[in-house]
Each structure stands twice: as structure tokens, then as C-alpha cells.
């Protein structure tokens, strides 16, 4: 069994909060199961809070304070943790960056855009101009900074094993300038090759695919059940109900079956990058 990943309390406020929770629980001589009993929350959910991956709901914080005799500490600090993890991210996505860092494997499907972990700042900034033109420039830059910061994951020695799938149309059919897309597509190739990750492309000749209308990020962990994150325009959801997770797993495997092989996919991306560089030079 893989060794458990203890939270590094120095990384962030959520990790400090989770480390303190684990310390107080173990000091009280309680297992996760014993602490979760009567809270209407699962053991895996509590474990993810201890690792700094999930937010502590107020009702659970109240339960924890009562069981551990911590005089309201965890309830008082709920808002602090939520604010710390939400900087630059939508409220429904706030838990995901820490979960990505703690994952053993990370598989994602992006039917409408380049996956966030593979985006350049220029691509994300340009995309925001089209999908959210009402967002103030300073907020856009805050979000760009948070999006790019997630890419620090690629530099970690203990980064998760990554497997991505995207549609060819996400990098072929775009209103963004050729120079921006040349940089973006080449960036994808460079990251995948340098990290020895896997990426597949579903070609435009295959117009329909499983999970065609929603992105999916499947994460597995050393000491917690697998989890799926899926997202729409104004909301996101972390799915950990086993039957639903298995359904996402099955649909993702179907996507693999209809996608191009990994090397052919990278060659397609390299061709697209060359086309964009040529188009950019023609504009100059």
C-alpha cells in the first residue's frame, strides 16, 4: 500500500488547517471513522479535509469542535480557509487545485477547451475576453495568475501520473490570434513530452463522443477513494459517490478507445503548432 501523504502545513492555510485537524484527532485517540460518526459525512471526505484538499463545512466544523473539545477553533476558521483557497478561482473550483497536488493519477477530458493545467496565460486571458467579457481586467489577471500557478504541479517530483484527452476542434477552431495558439499548442506538446505524460486527441472526423457536453477530471489518491470533478458554465461538482465515479470511469475509457494513439495525437498537435506559427508570420 502506498505511504499516506501527510499534509505539509507550510504550503497553505487549508493545509495548516488540515494538519491541525489531524493532530487534534490523533491527540484525542480517535480514528477518522470515530470522528466522522454522527456527522453525516463520509470518512474519505474528512480525510481529504485533513490533507488540505476539501473545505470544512460549518456543520462538520461544529461537530469536530464538539468531539475534540477545541472550543470552536475549527468553526471559527472555516471562512479563513475558504477565502484562502478561493483566491483567483471560482467558489465551486476552490478545492480542486489542492486535490490535483495530492492525486496519484489525474485523467481529464476537455471537450470545449484546453485543460487548465495545460493552458498558457495568453490563452486563458484571450479565452476570458470571449466567455466572460464583463469581468474587470484586474479580476482577469488574478485568475490568470491562479491558473498559471496550478502548472507548478509539472515541476513536482511527486506529481500525479497524467492522462489527458481533448478534441481537435478545441485547438483548430478558435478565434484567438495565431501567435497565441502557436504558443499554446506547442506548450501542450512540450509539457506532455517533458513530463512523460499521455495525451490523446479525438479527431474532428469523430464529431460525437462519450461525455460530449461536460468536462471530467478523474483523480485517484493513496489513501482515499477516487473522485471526479465536473463543471458547467456557472457551477462545478465534486463527485465521490462510487456508482457515479464508476460511470465516469467507463465513459472515459470509451473516450480513450475513439481517440488517436498518443504519438499520433502529439504529431497532430505539432502540425497545428507549425500551421499557427506560419499564419502568425504571414500576419507580421
TrEMBL record:
Q: Per UniProt, what is one GO molecular function of this protein?
A: DNA binding
Q: Which residues form the HTH cro/C1-type domain?
A: 21-55
Any Pfam family: DUF5753
Protein name, UniProt field: Helix-turn-helix transcriptional regulator
Which organism does this record belong to? Streptomyces tagetis
Q: What is the lineage of its organism?
A: Bacteria, Bacillati, Actinomycetota, Actinomycetes, Kitasatosporales
